[in-house]
Structure formats: structure tokens, C-alpha cells
Write the C-alpha cells for this entry.
Amino acid sequence: MKACLLRAPAPVSTNPLVLADVPMPVPSAGQVLVRVSACGVCRTDLHVVEGELSPRKSPLIPGHQVVGVIEQRGEGARRFRVGDRVGIAWLHETDGVCEYCRAGQENLCEHATFTGYVVDGGYAEYALAPEAFVYPIPESFSDLDAAPLLCAGIIGFRALRLSGIGPGGRLGFYGFGAAAHVAIQVARHWGVEVYAFTRDAAHQRLALDLGAAWAGSGKANGHGPPTLLDSAIIFAPAGELVPAALKVLRKGGTLVLAGIHMSTIPAMDYDLLYWERVIRSVANNTRQDGEDFLRVAAEIPVRTQVRVFPLAEANRALNALKNDEVRGAAVIQVRG
């Protein structure tokens, strides 16, 4: 099969992915083999490819927002039928027995594996996954539109939940890429006012088009939001945004850090945390997050905006994402 291989981490500007012929994987007990149609391109892929996340496998096939159909089932895999359309997400498998799994916190599992990082992912014609960790894709979404839902959507949904925001609340988004352009649709569905902080004019326009009450750079020279916020979510991997976000939170507000990797958070005065403001991170997701989000996404319905790249141009997709050239989400189309 054709697949994009990462042999060693390197800057995406050097085009480190190599399109190669590799053996087709064979499902073992409890696994399914998925014939990939599309795979979303996530900022986490950038962190993996460039080595900001410590390498766990070499060579590696990246990608963890995979949509396709069941091609083959391993022994004992009976949850899905051959031909069913499914999605493979970041959380590949957990041990099911550690203290976190037993407490319903499988996203914190001590021995979790992750798609496109610890095991091969979806920048390929076929991908493997345990059938217990794949999702049925709602019929209302095309393959290309569904792909960004499997990480950008699920993680954004978990971040919304952890923010504690409710109807009538005021919520800030820092960075307005794939996750934010999905999360704003859920937030607006819940009756939340959204304030989008992004430097890029095109992303500001997208935020306003999707119902943001305000969009701007957030700089102190008169371009900040018109009101204090109840909660905020930082989607951008920029630690320097943490003090800035705390400054616009009301007393008792919650700041959620939604990325798996972030640059250093600068030293800051305790006054920014005082008045019971809270900072919390998002670590992976549970299967329940994914199931709940896909149900809500179909009910709204969420509409993703995608820029499509062929498998052979995965490097170009990563470069476009890094340079903020993607309006919405980038998706690799493996099969038309």
C-alpha cells in the first residue's frame, strides 16, 4: 500500500514525509483494517513530525483523524461489519485496568497508545485500530467533512466541557483553526457568546461568519474584547497567551489549555490567578467524549470547512497548516 513515512523528525519546511510502498497491515484479534478515504491534518501532527513530541516509533505513518470503511476484521471483532464506515481518532487503545481507566478517566491511562504517534496512523491507504476504539460516522457527514471531527472536533468539545461554560456565558477562543471553527458551532448551539482572538484577518472573518460576537487580535492598543469573559480556551500552542487570557477573565473564570504541546508559559504575577481563576489542561479524550460529540455534531449539524490535499502532498498540507494558510481544516484525500 502507499503511505507517507516519517523516518526521523525534522522541520516541515524540509518536507520530511516520504511517499513509499509498505506492506499492508493485517488485523490481529479484536482489530479492524480500515481502507482509508480521508485523514484530517492536525496541529498535533506538526508536533509529531517536527519532534516537539518525543519520538515513539520509527519509521512512522502520521495521522489520527481517519475516515474509511472496514476492509477486514480480526478474530473476535464483531462490533462492525465489513463495509461499515468508521473513524479512527487519537486515542488508539488503553489498558482498561489502571486506576484511571477504572475511574472513567481513560484519557489519562498509564499505558495508552496513540494513533499516528505510538502506532501508525492514517496518512496511508489502510490503517489498523482496535474495534472498541473506532467510531461509527454519522451518515450526514461526507468523508472529507467528517475527518476534522475526529480530533479537532472531539478535543474542542472536551475543552468546552472543561471550561464550564453555559448558556448566556461569554467564552474566548485563542487561535481560530480547525478545532475552534468546529467548537464555535457547538458553543453557539448552546447559546454561548464567543470572542475570537486571532491575528489573521481571514480567521477573524471566519469567526464572525460562524457567529462570533467579536473577533480581533486582542492587543492592548484598543483591540481587546469589549467585556470580561467567563471562560477561555487556548487552542494555539503559545504559552505567552496564558497571562493575556487571564487578564480578560472575570473573577472565578476558567482558562482551558487545549493543546498537547505548548511553548513555555512566562512568569506572571499571582494577581492574574487570584480571585479563584482556574487554569486546566486538556489531556487526550475519552471514547465517551467522541460518542457524545459526534451525536451533538450531527444534531446541530456542524459544518466543517476543509482544504483538500492528495496523499502525495502531505508535506504541503503540513506546511500550509504551520503557516496559517488553512481556513478551517486541512484534510488529506486518500481515495476520491
In short: The chain is about 25% helix and 25% strand.
